[in-house]
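User: Quick one: structure for sequence A, then sequence B.

Assistant: Sequence A:
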Amino acid sequence: MNKPKPPLYRKENTTAHTMRDRHRARDFGDTRNTKAEQMSDATRRPMHGKEQRGRDYTPLYRFLLSKVGQPWSEVHSEAVSRLDRPDPIFWMVALHEDDRKDYVCTGESSHFSGLYVDEAGLLQLVNPDVGPSTLAPTCRCCTHTFNGVPFTKTYRYPGD
C-alpha cells in the first residue's frame, strides 16, 4: 500500500495579484442583449470554460533544491512522474553550460538558485555564493525571496 507522492505543483496560484479580479462578477450594465450578440459565437460558448490560470511550481523548485548532489537521472525521473509536464524543470536546471544562471526569477518577486548537471551527472548549484543577502529587491512594495527566504537588503531608490 504505497501512498502516491503528491504532485510537485499547485493547481492554482491563489496568491497571484490578478486572481481576485478574475472572480469578480460583471456588472449587468456592461452587457447588452442585442440580436447580433445573441447569435454570435462568443456568447454561445459553454459556460464552463477551460481557462488555465497557471500553476505554481514552488514545490518543484524546493524538491530540486533538496536533491542537490544527487544523480540527475533519478531526480529527473521522480520529478517528471510528479508533474503535469516536464518543461518547468528546465526553467531552473540547465543542461548546457550556456544556459546556466546564478539564480532564476520564477515570479514577480520569487527567486531560486540556478542548478545544472555536472560532468558526473550530479545536480549542482550554479553559484552557491548567491543568497538572500547578495540580492537587492527591485521594488519597495513586494517581499522578495530567494529560495523562500526574504532578502536582507532593502530597496534603494534609483540614484541613491
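Sequence B:
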Amino acid sequence: MSGLFLSKGLFPQDFFRPTVEFLVRAQQADGSIPWFDGGHADPWDHVESAMGLSIGGEFEAAENAYRWLKNNQLEDGSWWAAYRDGEVDNHERRETNFVAYVATGVWHHFLISENQAFLQEMWPCVQSAIEFVLAQQSPHGEINWAVSADGEPMCDALVTGCSSIYKSLECAVNISVQIGSPRPVWRDARQALGEALRKKPERFDRTWESKSRYSMDWFYPVLSGAIPPAKAGAHLQKRWG
C-alpha cells in the first residue's frame, strides 16, 4: 500500500470497515479478542486486534481490550500464553515478546486517539510488563523468550521475538517521556538488545534448530528498526530469493 493509504484519515475506510466490524463482533464481554469464535486469546494477537479497533475509530472497544490486559496482569507484570472464556488456557509459560507488546499497542492507541488519560491509566500496566521483560535480559543483550510456569527462565532467545521487544521498548520509552516519567534504563536496554540483534547471532537459537528458515527472522529486524534504514535494503536483498 502507498503512503496515501497509510496516512491518517486518508485510508479507504469502506474497505477496512468489514474487518473492523468483525473485530467488534469477536470481542468478548470482558474485552478479550480471541483468534476466532470459540478460540483462545493470546496477549500478542489480542493487542494486534486492539490496534485494528483503534485504526477503525472504535476507541471504546480498543480501550476495553487494553483494560482486559490490565485486569488480567499477573503480579510480576506478565500474562500467561493464552486465555479462553475468562480462564487461563495455557499456563505452561509467559512469553516475553507477548508481555512487552502491550507498550506497542498502548502507544499506538494514544497516537491515534490522543487520549492522555488513557495513557496515564495504562502506565502502571506498561511499566510492570516492561520490568518483567527486562528481568530476562542477559549481559549480552538478548532477552529470554519465555519464563516457565514455575518462574524459571527458559534460556534461549528468538530473533523475531526480540525484534518485537525492540519495537515495544521504543514505544515504552515514548510513553514514559509523554507522561513525564522517563526511563533511561529502558533506553539502554533497548540499545543493548539492538546490538545483540545486529552483531551477536550466536546468542539466538542456541538450544534448538535455527529459526532463520522462517521469513519473520528475515524481515522483523527491519520492520522493528533494529536494522537501521541505511542497511535494511541490503539485509533484505540477501535473502530476497
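Strands lie at 82-84, 87-90, 93-95, 146-148, 153-154. The mean pLDDT is 95.

User: Thanks, that's what I needed.
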